[in-house]
Amino acid sequence: MTSDAILNLLFAAADDVGRTFDHRDLAEWPAGSHRVFLKLGILRQSAGGLMASCPSCDDGHVELVSQRPGPDGEPRLYIYCPEQLRLEVSAEMCRGWEVDLDGLATLLNSAMELKGKPKPLIPNRLWRLGRIPWEGNTREVMLATRLGDPDGASVAAPVGVGGRAIVLVPRQVPDDRVWPGRVPAVVALERVAELDDDRFVIDGVALMEAVAEADAVALERGEIPQEQLAAKKVRQQVDKAIKSMLSNEALVQEYRIRGSYRKAADALVAAGYRTNRYAVERAVKTAGGPDAVKQGADSNSVIRTVASQPRDRSKNFSQRR
Ligand SMILES: [Zn+2]
């Protein structure tokens, strides 16, 4: 196995519960890689080191270690084995190793040169890693583990509904339904992390691609980025829509019917449009003034007014404000 393969193995363990590596596993790792992972801080000795796997059986069954005096009277370590009954194990064999998730968060924070320190939000499940510059703005980067577990939604909840966050997961990309709102860009570390000699690196280009891909999928789903939904933009859009509905011609038309700026405006407002007498006056003056407008009316055999055909859509717009 290569060191990168071991790294992926560690990511798989990070997305699992109680995965430890023992002396048998370590024997298959490339020479020195155990030390490298310890130094990087993503591997640590597991707290429960009183188990050992059988060095004799092929299935490597794991047993509780007991201490008894050996033939020479000195304490020795033993495990129970169905075939050998009692088997001596070395202290080294009793040691287990596990992924240090807080160490992984710290490592990611420094590898990505994120601003701020990583902060655990839910122990062993969710960390705020810091912010990364992104297209003239910044985006929050988070680390989450085991999002596919039954309680995944409660882990995903603090990520928020905006869909702007970049959520790193060790390996498992969860179902979109785990997210409370817009689906953030979820990137599996397996895809972007690697070892460069003894250094842990995040492939920046691969990360950008993965995030852009996730953003594109979100856009396809019709999820508009949060910033475009800012109140100001909505208001501008609504104003534009209303403006287009009440064209100058519509205001002038209403004035022809009602005969005064005030009456025309009142009729339009009553019909659900947003306008006032000054808007009507401006429109009439733009059209050449009251006399020209009234002459124009004479040439129209049928006069239809905007206010006589209130539209629900326009009401919705004004009510939303
Ligand atoms: Zn055995």
Description:
The structure is a single chain. This protein is an alpha+beta fold and 321 residues long. The chain folds into three domains: 3-99, no CATH class; 101-227, no CATH class; 232-320, no CATH class. It is built from 13 helices and 14 strands. The strands form five sheets. It has a five-stranded mixed β-sheet with strand order 8-9-10-11-12. A three-stranded antiparallel β-sheet has the order 4-5-6, with no helix packed on it. α9 (248-258) crosses α10 (261-270) and α9 (248-258) packs across α11. It is rod-shaped. Bound molecules: zinc ion (ZN). Zinc ion binds next to loops.
Task: Give the tags.
3-stranded antiparallel beta sheet, alpha+beta, disordered C terminus
Short description:
The protein is α+β, with helices and mostly antiparallel strands.
The total strand number stands at 14
Low-confidence stretches: 310-321
Order of helices and strands: HHHEEEEEEEHEEEHEEHEEHHHHHHH
Average of the residue pLDDT scores = 83
Oligomer: single chain
Ligands present: zinc ion
What's the structural domain tally?
Answer: 3
Q: Which percent range fits the helix content?
A: 25-40%
User: How many distinct helices?
Assistant: 13
